[in-house]
Amino acid sequence: MTDETGPWLVVGLGNPGREYAGNRHNVGFMVVDLLAGRLGGKFGRHRRAVAEVAEGRLGFGGPKLVLAKPLTYMNLSGGPVASLAQFYKVSPGQVIAVHDELDIGYGQLRVKCGGGEGGHNGLRSMSKSLGTKDYVRVRFGIGRPPGRQDPADYVLSDFGSVERKELDFLVDRAADVVESVVTRGVEPTQNLYHGG
């Protein structure tokens, strides 16, 4: 269920701190940073949740977006998300998690509502804290690690030089996907963006 008048909570998943800023695991932060720029919002520390938050509207008089970057580490993201959802009175159906996804090729974007967490600790924490898996996920493909590299090391490493050439474009496209979910809905967004 979505509330036509209520805000949307868009959560970028990542780890706080400069040393993690360019990591594959932090692509969610990159997307909400771009969205904040589009909305003319500035991130600031929330008074009730361990998170940075920026607010704005999509277009003139459009839906309100609350953009969030939890300041806990990835595996504890759920606590701040649940606090923000409660504070802004956002139902789980209007929570969007933007996150890296190992099971999708680099740069591919997929949208879904509900389902499993695929071993992603940020999603696992969100599902537990929200008490449901029925929130929207915008999945940013990072692909599998090369050779025998440990997936945990892979997600905590920076994007490679070849990947970085396309990264700005792909982050921009992921921000478009988030806006499309808010304005059109999940299914029309899937039809629009799942081709590539």
Automatic annotation (TrEMBL):
The record marks 100 as: Stabilizes the basic form of H active site to accept a proton. It comes from the Bacteria. SUPFAM superfamilies: Peptidyl-tRNA hydrolase-like. Keywords: Cytoplasm, Hydrolase, RNA-binding, tRNA-binding. Its main location: cytoplasm. GO terms for cellular component: cytoplasm. The record marks 15 as: Discriminates between blocked and unblocked aminoacyl-tRNA. PROSITE patterns: PEPT_TRNA_HYDROL_1 (PS01195), PEPT_TRNA_HYDROL_2 (PS01196). Its EC number is 3.1.1.29. One of its GO terms (molecular function) is peptidyl-tRNA hydrolase activity. The keyword Phosphoprotein does not apply. TRNA binds at residues 20, 73, 75, 121. Monomer. Hydrolyzes ribosome-free peptidyl-tRNAs (with 1 or more amino acids incorporated), which drop off the ribosome during protein synthesis, or as a result of ribosome stalling. This is Peptidyl-tRNA hydrolase. It comes from Micromonospora craterilacus. The gene is pth.
